[in-house]
Amino acid sequence: MRLLTKCPACSIAVELSIAHADRRTHCPRCGKLFRLPDTDALHEALALLRSAQCDVYVDEKGNVYG
Ligand SMILES: [Zn+2]
């Protein structure tokens, strides 16, 4: 499963394996180290998406999943 996130420093979209969730990774463009959403939040979001048949979920902190 692939996961799309955004670098907080330079805002490019970064595509990663879900194995990187809840871990820190380096942005491929600017090299900034940032943390991905944890898998609990991600799995919860994906379950919600499936049950609601929507494509994107935004949590209360503004994290976007989908
Ligand atoms: Zn960056």
What percent strand? 25-35%
Question: Helix/strand-derived class?
Answer: alpha+beta
- Gap between N and C termini: 11 Å
Helix content: 10-25%
The whole-angstrom Rg is 12 Å
Q: Summarize the biggest pleated sheet.
A: 2 strands, antiparallel
Q: Could you say how many structural domains there are in total?
A: 1
Short account of what is shown:
The chain has one helix at 39-52, and strands at residues 2-6, 13-17, 24-26, 33-35, 57-58, 64-65. By secondary structure, it is α+β, with helices and mostly antiparallel strands.
Top keywords for this entry?
6 strands, 30% strand, two-stranded antiparallel sheet, binds zinc ion, 66 residues, 21% helix, alpha+beta
Question: How is this structure best described in words?
Answer:
- With 66 residues, the protein is an alpha+beta fold.
- It has one domain (2-55).
- Helix content is 21%, strand content 30%.
- It is built from 1 helix and 6 strands.
- It has one helix spanning 39-52; strands spanning 2-6, 13-17, 24-26, 33-35, 57-58, 64-65.
- The strands form 3 sheets. It has a two-stranded antiparallel ribbon with strand order 1-2.
- Strand 3 (24-26) and strand 4 (33-35) form a beta hairpin.
- The radius of gyration is 12 Å and the shape is elongated.
- The mean pLDDT is 81.
Q: How are the SSEs ordered, and which strands pair?
A:
Layout: E1 2-6, E2 13-17, E3 24-26, E4 33-35, H1 39-52, E5 57-58, E6 64-65
Antiparallel strand pairs: 1-2, 3-4, 5-6
The structure holds zinc ion (ZN).
Zinc ion is lined by residues 7, 9-10, 12, 27, 29-30, 32.
